[in-house]
Every structure is written in C-alpha cells, then in structure tokens.
Amino acid sequence: MVLGQVFVFLTALAVVGLMSVDIIVFPECGLTGCNYWDRNYVIEEVAEIIPSPDSGVVPCKKKSYTQRNSMYVAVNLYEKFIELDNQNDTNLHNKSNDILLYNTNIVFDRFGRLIARYRKFNLYAERTHLGVNSTKEPEFSIFTTDFGVTFGIIICFDIIFKQPVYGLLYEKNVSALIFSGAIYSQLPFLVVPSLVSGWSYSMNTTVLFSDMPVKKGSVGGSGIFMGKSDPLRLIMEEHYDSKILISKVPKPVSSANLPSLEEKTHENEKSNFCDSMFIADEKLDYYTYQSISQNLTHKCNNLLMNSFNHTNENYTCTIRAVWQINSITNQSEYKFLSYAGERNFSTASINNYVEVCGLTLCHKSPNGGCLEPPIFEDAFSITMIHIDIFSVSTVDAIVIPSTLNSSLHPLSVKNFRFSKSKTRIGNHENIIVHMNLIEPVSNLITFGFYKLPEVSNPDPASYHSRNTTELN
Ligand SMILES: *[C@@H]1O[C@H](CO)[C@@H](O)[C@H](O)[C@H]1NC(C)=O
Ligand SMILES: *[C@@H]1O[C@H](CO)[C@@H](O)[C@H](O)[C@H]1NC(C)=O
Ligand SMILES: *[C@@H]1O[C@H](CO)[C@@H](O)[C@H](O)[C@H]1NC(C)=O
Ligand SMILES: *[C@@H]1O[C@H](CO)[C@@H](O)[C@H](O)[C@H]1NC(C)=O
Ligand SMILES: *[C@@H]1O[C@H](CO)[C@@H](O)[C@H](O)[C@H]1NC(C)=O
Ligand SMILES: *[C@@H]1O[C@H](CO)[C@@H](O)[C@H](O)[C@H]1NC(C)=O
Ligand SMILES: *[C@@H]1O[C@H](CO)[C@@H](O)[C@H](O)[C@H]1NC(C)=O
Ligand SMILES: *[C@@H]1O[C@H](CO)[C@@H](O)[C@H](O)[C@H]1NC(C)=O
Ligand SMILES: *[C@@H]1O[C@H](CO)[C@@H](O)[C@H](O)[C@H]1NC(C)=O
Ligand SMILES: *[C@@H]1O[C@H](CO)[C@@H](O)[C@H](O)[C@H]1NC(C)=O
Ligand SMILES: *[C@@H]1O[C@H](CO)[C@@H](O)[C@H](O)[C@H]1NC(C)=O
Ligand SMILES: *[C@@H]1O[C@H](CO)[C@@H](O)[C@H](O)[C@H]1NC(C)=O
Q: Where does the secretion signal sit in this chain (predicted)?
C-alpha cells in the first residue's frame, strides 16, 4: 500500500468518525494506486491475501480504525489469492500453487469484521497491464446493514455492463449499490457524473459512488446518486485531490417522500471547463453528425426548429429541437450526433456494441469539434428537444439518459423525461426510448441517450503471460 494514501484514508476515517457516519466508501485504487502505465509498479508488493468473509475474521484486532469509528467501511485492494493445487498442501509458497490477482472490494462492519468481498468482473486495463484476473462467473456480493439497507458492490468498469448489476438488482434485490471507481470523463456523452447519474436514474437505484480518476489531469466525479431523484451530493474531482462527501441518505427501501436534508460539505464546488480534464477515447468519425442549424425546417424570428434522423436496419434515432439564439456566435454550435455500432472502451476490450443519439455543443468546425470542452458563450436557449429511439439490438443492455450543463452537472430530474419500454413485434423484441426536455434550458452542453454495451468482450490476444514474482 502507498503510505501517503493510507494516511489520507485514516484521516478520512477520523474526520467522519466524529460525525456519526454509518458507512464510508473509498475509491478504486485508493490504497494501491492504479499504476497501469508504470512499468516499475509491482502489483504483488501491494496485493494482500484476503480471508473469506464467511470466516467472520477481524483482520486488525488491536488497532481497528473501523471499530474505533464504528461505521461500515468499504475499501478497494489488489487481492492475492493462492489457489492450492492440493487442498492438503498448506505451504502457500509451493511453486505448483496458482497465484491469482483480483481487483477486490472488501467491506468491514462496525466492529471491524470482514463481511463482504467482491472481485471485479469486468476488468479494464489491469488485465493487460498488471495481469489481474477476473472470476469466471460474476459474483453477486451483498451485505445487509444494521440500518436496514442491503447493498450490492460493483467496481468501476462493471457499471456499463449487464452483469453483475442485473444479478444484484433483480436476483439479490439490493436496494443500493456501493460503487468504487477510477473513471475519467469523456466528452460528450460519458462525463462521469452524467454516466453515473444517468445510470442511477435509469435503474432507479441509490448509488454511493467514490471515484479517483486514474489518468493524470483527468476528472472523475464522486457523488450520492438517488435514482429518480436528484443527486444528494456531486463533485467533479481532480487527480489525487481527496475530498469527503457526506450526506444523510433516505433509506432506499422506503418509498415515502424524501425527508429534508441536512448537508455537510468539505469541499469547494468547481465549475469550469479545463482542457486537460477530458480524455478523448471516443472517436467522432464513427458518429453520424450534423450541425443543428443545417437545413432548418422552421425559422420564426429568432426561434429555430430542426430535426434529424439516422436509421439502419436495426436502429432509428430521431431528434427534434427548437432553440433560440441569444447572441450571434461563430465559435460554437450544437450538433446532432448518432451512432449504432461497436466501439472499444479499453485496451483489452473489443466489439462493445453501443447506441448513442443526442445533441451536444461543439466547436464550430467542419469536422466535429465535439470531443473537446466547448466554448461556452451563453448564446443559445434550447426550448424543446424530443429524442426517439427504436432498436432491435441488445435489448437487455442498460440505457441511460446522458445530460450535462455548463457547470458540469447532469440536468435536474425535473428538467427532462426519460422512458424506456420493451415490446415485441413478430419474433423480434425491441426497445423504444423516449426522452424530452420539460422546460427550456440555457446552459446545455449535452442531451442524449446512450445504450451501454451488454457484455464486455475481452480480447484473448491481450491476455499476457507474466512471471509472477516469488511470494514472501
Ligand atoms: C507442492 O505441491 C505438490 C503438488 O500438490 C506436492 O506434491 C508437494 O509435496 C508440495 N510441496 C510442498 C513443499 O508442500
Ligand atoms: C487430503 O487429506 C485427507 C485426510 O487427511 C485425505 O483423505 C485426502 O485424500 C487428501 N486429499 C488429497 C487430494 O490428497
Ligand atoms: C490470471 O492472469 C494471468 C495474467 O493474465 C494469466 O496468465 C493466468 O492464466 C490467469 N489465471 C487464470 C486462472 O485465469
Ligand atoms: C427477489 O425478489 C423476487 C421477486 O419479488 C423474489 O422472487 C426473489 O425470491 C427475491 N430474491 C431474494 C434473494 O430475496
Ligand atoms: C423509484 O424507486 C422509489 C423507491 O426507491 C419508488 O418510490 C419510485 O416509485 C420509483 N420510481 C419509479 C419511476 O419507478
Ligand atoms: C442540406 O444542407 C446541405 C449543406 O448545406 C446541402 O448540401 C443539402 O443539399 C441540404 N439538403 C436538403 C435536403 O436540403
Ligand atoms: C426521417 O427521414 C425520413 C426519410 O429520409 C423522412 O421521411 C422523415 O420525415 C424524417 N423524419 C424526421 C423527423 O426528420
Ligand atoms: C442488424 O442486426 C443483425 C442481427 O444481429 C446483424 O447481423 C446486422 O449486421 C445488423 N445490422 C447493422 C447495420 O448493424
Ligand atoms: C467571429 O466573429 C467576430 C465578429 O463577427 C469576428 O470579429 C471574428 O473575426 C470572428 N472569428 C472567427 C474565428 O471567424
Ligand atoms: C481500443 O482502443 C484503444 C484506444 O483507441 C487502442 O489503444 C486499443 O488497442 C484498442 N483495443 C483493441 C482490442 O482494439
Ligand atoms: C446545472 O444543473 C444543476 C442541477 O443539476 C444546477 O444546480 C446548476 O445551477 C446548473 N448550472 C447552470 C449553469 O445552469
Ligand atoms: C520469466 O522468467 C524467466 C527466468 O527469470 C525468464 O527466463 C523468462 O524469459 C521470463 N518470461 C517472461 C515471459 O518474461
């Protein structure tokens, strides 16, 4: 473990310990670092052997910080797991025993007992760069707290795929998720708060999300997301800048009206675009795009209207928009964007089928300019957007609304409507998604629909064989 990081964690525990907090969630890589690109990083040196949660073990009996602070604590570690070749062989150093490495979240209860362990199923670059393994089947790891909430656990890249999320929500019936991440933002549709709040909204599930952006200079965005209600807390954060978000969270099991909230904060809100904050893994050339003002269908004084559609045999995206120009600008413009096809999300993944349909503010340039932060001039007010999607592909994938305003916040749930329905025509299942603005907005960056990939497809060629260093 990185000593400086341990200090940050202990400080965090001490601070929230004074506030009768029930549960604290730390980000992915928080203790170990996410040093995918550091050739000198030896993962075995930071990986720990983690006992099974069934053993009810208290790993640090004397100086348990979780015990002293009396709260549930979720942390992320690299786990070293020794698969004994012969169950009777107690010698862990035996060379014939397989050493597996997992990216693992563990949870301690108020007494420091280990009560849950989850091994990340959908690996990002840690498989190719660090030799981390995944379990063959997704684990549905849950724990029930003494305040009556059953949590499921997921890590980072897990958020975009069907499993283990569907198992947790539909089989284990969890009412909230603990989500540790090290995610960075990608314009225009996958800025972290847009992704997680859209996800929470779409799945109507409370998410306690703790993020640490993995690439230098990039931003993530931690928060407490509340399903069909607005997030209780939300920040964009920069690399290695530690902040604690605290909020009273209404119990997700109850369907009563939300109580009024008392909030405490330990950070300054940040709201400006900064070039280095975004990483353009996305490629604009796979989108079909068009300036919103090209071939206008209606123009009435300064009220403009246009529509756009993009269709293939499996997919239709239709967008209609009405807007108003407050001041003439030659720097930025909205573009309609649509894509149905494959993209890869990491060095290790291939053929992830996604669908995207929406509009975003771009630089005024013939070849896109939508992947960099837009120049925000307050030049437009959007009075109406209607988006309709019809799709017959990957009908079980998670679909989310992706919205973003110039403060890098997703729109309030009061500003838009989003609905998804699954129907059957003949032998074909299909989904219909409808999304629209409820009231005019003047600080819009992005408004659209994103169908996330159903399953991750790791590229077998990217599994590297590595020399495991001697255990000691
Ligand atoms: C190591 O494992 C092999 C195969 O299971 C076994 O035959 C051998 O006795 C073990 N060696 C030690 C030192 O335990
Ligand atoms: C392990 O030990 C038990 C009892 O000592 C024995 O019955 C069993 O055959 C052993 N298993 C192996 C794989 O050696
Ligand atoms: C664990 O990962 C390493 C590195 O990718 C790989 O060589 C090994 O075969 C994996 N083990 C299993 C059981 O999948
Ligand atoms: C989850 O809910 C479904 C439907 O209400 C029920 O059939 C199932 O047994 C529940 N599963 C668990 C693990 O509670
Ligand atoms: C979302 O979940 C809450 C309870 O957590 C429930 O009261 C509400 O009706 C749900 N909303 C929708 C649209 O399903
Ligand atoms: C739309 O605009 C483009 C460029 O301004 C033009 O080339 C094209 O003919 C127009 N299409 C229609 C249907 O008017
Ligand atoms: C979509 O495209 C079709 C064919 O090009 C056209 O007939 C239809 O009017 C378009 N719809 C919208 C809303 O633009
Ligand atoms: C439509 O779906 C079918 C069946 O999955 C597939 O073979 C075909 O390539 C898809 N077409 C496009 C344009 O994606
Ligand atoms: C933008 O418009 C302003 C005023 O109309 C003009 O002075 C400026 O040169 C234009 N900039 C570019 C890059 O076209
Ligand atoms: C995925 O995309 C990244 C960045 O564009 C590229 O470096 C990587 O090789 C791609 N991976 C695969 C498996 O195609
Ligand atoms: C962006 O949206 C949030 C609510 O989601 C709101 O609090 C904030 O004021 C908005 N910012 C702007 C510039 O409109
Ligand atoms: C593994 O280590 C051995 C001995 O140190 C070395 O000869 C071999 O080339 C290494 N293999 C790989 C794939 O690095």
A: 1-18
